[in-house]
Design a protein that fits this description.
Strand order of the largest sheet: 7-6-5-4-2-3-1-8
Shape: globular
Strand content: 35-45%
Distance between the termini: 14 Å
Structural class: alpha/beta
Largest sheet: 8 strands, mixed
Order of helices and strands: EHEEHEHEEEE
Oligomer: single chain
Number of helices: 3
Number of strands: 8
Radius of gyration: 14 Å
């Protein structure tokens, strides 16, 4: 289960719409409890550094920027608890590429953007055996 605010969701959608027709990506910062329930405290947009010709269906986050973001989060007492990205002109459903590059425990919010407008979104968690994603329960306040 993941809990976030309407403001977090609106910020994610705005990032997805602004980067259309390219994919966008960002981090979900917050806390994880003993039952793997996540609470988002902050969203952190990241730059898509994928090659121009692949940005429509790939996000690449610079590893140095990711490490810097993780350090900054820890200084605030937060952890990276998930990742969000957009699927331009596609469904808010994880791809095989998404599954192949996912990390256990993290939440994965995917936003569908059609004609510059965020039209759907879902949050996903990967099975522990890495076989598939499952829809994740979401609480919005």
């Amino acid at each position: 289960m993941i809990a976030l605010t309407n403001g977090h969701l609106e910020a994610i959608k705005a990032h997805a719409e602004a980067d259309y027709p390219h994919e966008c990506g960002g981090l979900l910062l917050g806390q994880l409890d003993a039952e793997n329930n996540k609470s988002v405290v902050e969203t952190l947009p990241m730059e898509n550094t994928a090659a121009e010709e692949t940005r429509h269906d790939r996000v690449l986050i610079d590893p140095c920027a990711l490490m810097k973001a993780d350090r900054a989060a820890r200084k605030k007492g937060l952890d990276v608890i998930g990742y969000y990205h957009s699927h331009p002109d596609d469904e808010a459903v994880p791809s095989q590429f998404d599954l192949d590059h996912a990390l256990p425990v993290w939440s994965y919010i995917i936003v569908s953007v059609i004609d510059k407008k965020a039209v759907d979104w879902n949050s996903w968690e990967m099975e522990n055996d890495r076989s598939k994603f499952n829809l994740e329960a979401v609480t919005i306040s």
